[in-house]
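hi support,

uploading two proteins for the ticket. first:
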Amino acid sequence: MDWLRGLSPPLRLSVYFAGAILAFFVAVGVGAAAAVVAGWQSGRVATGPGESSTLTGSKLETTSSAKASEDAATEQYGDPESTDDTAYEASFVHRATEENSRGDYTYISDPSIDGDENAIVLVSNQKNAGGASYKHNIGVWYTPVAHKWAIFNQDLPAVPAGATFEVRVPQASTAFVHHADLLNTAGNYTYLDNRLTNGKPDAVVSVTQNWNPGGSGGVYNDHPVGIGYDAELEKWEIYNEDGSAMPEGAAFNVTVSAGANEPLR
């Protein structure tokens, strides 16, 4: 630095200016190089407009591809070619065990009805362990705590382990819930009023008692029920076979299929 002090002031100032300019160009050159490198690296993970990305290893995954992979992992039920959820139906045999039963009821489970208090479920062909006929009038009810449907005994004794029941989840388009009220009930009868059944004596109608449609309320009807067609009224009817009065508020899951001589519309 002694030689710099020995220079004249104008010459010394020129050296200072030259050093400053050199330092500036060195800094600009390094920054430009860094920008080029950073731009190359960021270009590897760039996504299209509106998309976010997550880089895992060398795999680029956008939100749209993540959703697609999630959809692919979701199990589908019913006709895989159909987009109509009402076309789904299921039929299976349920066996009561100590694990799936609680006192007078036993839980049933199917992907289409679990967590759905508005589902329509029918049960029949009930038997005790060993094949003996089942001695209780049954129904179904939705258990809000477990978020599942259950089969129960109308007279409330415990469901014995080993009892079996045939369960059917019909197509939504062929089923409905019927409520007995003052306008449609007389004595031990309650009359259906639905486009699926009105004026269709050849229809095949199946019913199951539903204690709490929609997950609320609850009316017991501890009586065997039958179904028939009133030709004069052109309506189907549900009735207590032992002649007992039909209680107001009793509810029934109903499913309908076409008879041999009439298509179902």
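and the second one:
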Amino acid sequence: MSVDEKKTRLAAWLPRVCFITVCALPAVLTVLFYALRSNVSTMDWAADRISAPIRRAMGFLSSVFPFSLMEIFCVVAIVLLIFYVVKTIVLTVRGSNKLKILSKRLLTIAVAVLYVWSLFCWLWNSGYHANGFAARAGFVRNGATVEELAAVTAFFAERVNELAPLVSRDEDGRYAEDRREIFDLSTLVYQNAAEEFPALGGRLYKPKPMIFSWLMSRTGYTGVYFALTGESNINNNAPLFLLPATIAHELAHQLGVFAEDEASFVGILGAVTSGYTAYEYAGYLSGLIYLRNALFMADFDAWVGINESLCAEVVMDLQANYDFWVSQKTVDTGVSFFDNFLTSITETLSETVDAVYDGFLKSQSQELGIKSYGACVDLLVEYFHVASESQKTLNS
């Protein structure tokens, strides 16, 4: 075979090799992740050496934009998918070789989805299979006794009672802290917590209020961290008094705290040690909600006693939080048939999102699924039990 013939054959094969490589790469990365995810040391390496630097770089790049790149990504992806599916149907119907056209276009969609999923696996899912914050910080999660739970819940109740009158309120006693200032202070939240836990000392990028906050409210979520852009995205419609705790939770994800229960604990820890009253109040109030829910099932009488100890401002905020989330489950336009129809859609949407996210978490070895948001109680009791005992001694 002559040199020219070899060049011609190579030129003919090169596009095919490139095509196969492009199509196979995300599948290989995905298979590799699932094959290695049970190896904790490998996932530790991936979380520290692959995920962390890339997410930090993406966070830096996305911080240039005041709006959420995640929202733009999702909207564009949905629009393109709808357009592509419609065009696929048209071309398949009109084309002579329908099977070939359909298979090629379905392959394109499959490859695109696999690229996104493989990136998500290595940038985020790897952290679910690595050693978490509790393990790295030396926490031993043996569970909490009822007495310890009651003591820590009482401690949180005392702290919210102390802080509730110190935050800004309007003439009717409603929470009135400045929303912009809460966002501006966000990147400083962990400066004190980082002295005790150096892993929380990484650079933070300001969270972004979401345009589609109304949709987040309807599905029952207050924020989301998006690993592909390194952004913390916040539901800006949720109750303002818990906004600092939500921000601290999503920033914990920025710092590499992957599990939801650990991010809730770290968020509360960061908020209550921040030195900023709005964050301290939100942190203790958020923790109190978790603890009260657990105490209700463990010791109803203690739960009643703590509820009766709460000051008027705290009761008002807790009621406002309850009323807001109840309002998001229904639609009230004044037209009963229309309201019932939209309320049914809202309920279905919320249940579907919960089911999908629950399934996703469980598929990544988060056995509690969405219930893991409340599993931070053990960590709260373990960490704050000493503080609660000290407070009890002072009170006596």
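thanks. also noticed: Residues 368-373 have pLDDT under 50 and may be disordered.
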